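Appendix C: a fully annotated inverse folding record. The material below is reproduced so that readers can follow the format used throughout the book. The structure is listed first as tokens, followed by the designed sequence.
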């Protein structure tokens, strides 16, 4: 059993680090400076420089890898690119090379030939297959949840019914296509507590609001519910969000739909409560991280 991540760690990283270390040395940086920029030890830089680390020639010869090394080497040396920006660019290339039929995907299938023939229509490196799509949603949702868990003061925004951060697959039709936190997020002694790993089909209400918004034209793929507060709405408006009110005591789909149709650009939906219904604000966005960051900025 060999995962594609092992190909990245064992083949891609040594290759790109070796090439990038060499490029930075050619730009006039010292071993110490290169080590700090790449987040590795000076001894590792020395090994890369002296060719003591085995690299994958197929990866090294790829034009996209070469272009990335040149761009990052020049940018890092000149101070035009930060180490974090370099990491992001490398991550983007890795995801591209993992896509179906591309370099890392092919290396993975070469290492595990049975993957290429697994099932009649299933290819693990097909970016559109259901498994990869669902895993991307769950991974994004976990990142969003970490943002909320680490956001000081988020517990104070959790309503009495609890919060939930949800995200859906691109062609979501019902709550089974929406992932969320089982049992919701609650305030436990002033700390936001996530009771379990996100799953599909575990959120009823927040998922329904998201789906209703999407059915009526919203392109949101994630949502979170927080307590209703006119001051929060005012701050969200000040930050450029479009808000829209709906009536939760009536048919949810029709009510949310009417709100979206009145305000097609709405990224914040809210209802002010009714008998037995707590007032709630729903923040919508393109992905869980964006939604979580919107909430964090309110704190």
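Designed amino acids, in order:
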């Amino acid at each position: 059993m060999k995962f594609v991540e092992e190909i990245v760690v064992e083949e891609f990283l040594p290759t790109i680090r070796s090439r990038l270390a060499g490029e930075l040395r050619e730009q006039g940086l010292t071993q110490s400076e290169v080590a700090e920029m790449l987040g590795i030890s000076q001894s590792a830089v020395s090994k890369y420089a002296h060719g003591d680390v085995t690299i994958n020639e197929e990866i090294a010869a790829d034009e996209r890898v070469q272009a990335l090394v040149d761009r990052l080497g020049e940018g890092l040396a000149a101070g035009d690119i930060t180490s974090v920006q370099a990491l992001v660019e490398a991550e983007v290339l890795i995801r591209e090379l993992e896509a179906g039929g591309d370099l890392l995907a092919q290396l993975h299938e070469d290492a595990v030939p049975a993957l290429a023939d697994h099932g009649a229509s299933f290819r693990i490196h097909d970016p559109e297959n259901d498994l990869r799509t669902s895993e991307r949603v769950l991974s994004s949702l976990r990142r969003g949840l970490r943002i909320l868990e680490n956001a000081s003061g988020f517990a104070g925004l959790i309503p009495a019914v609890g919060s939930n951060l949800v995200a859906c697959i691109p062609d979501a039709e019902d709550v089974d296509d929406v992932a969320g936190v089982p049992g919701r997020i609650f305030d436990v002694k002033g700390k936001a507590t996530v009771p379990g790993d996100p799953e599909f089909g575990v959120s009823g209400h927040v998922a329904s609001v998201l789906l209703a918004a999407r059915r009526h034209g919203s392109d949101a793929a994630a949502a979170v519910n927080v307590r209703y507060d006119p001051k929060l709405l005012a701050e969200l408006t000040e930050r450029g969000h479009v808000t829209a009110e709906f009536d939760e005591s009536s048919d949810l789909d029709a009510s949310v739909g009417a709100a979206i149709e009145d305000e097609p650009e709405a990224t914040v939906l809210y209802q002010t409560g009714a008998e037995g219904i707590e007032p709630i604000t729903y923040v919508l966005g393109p992905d869980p991280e964006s939604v979580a960051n919107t909430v964090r900025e309110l704190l």
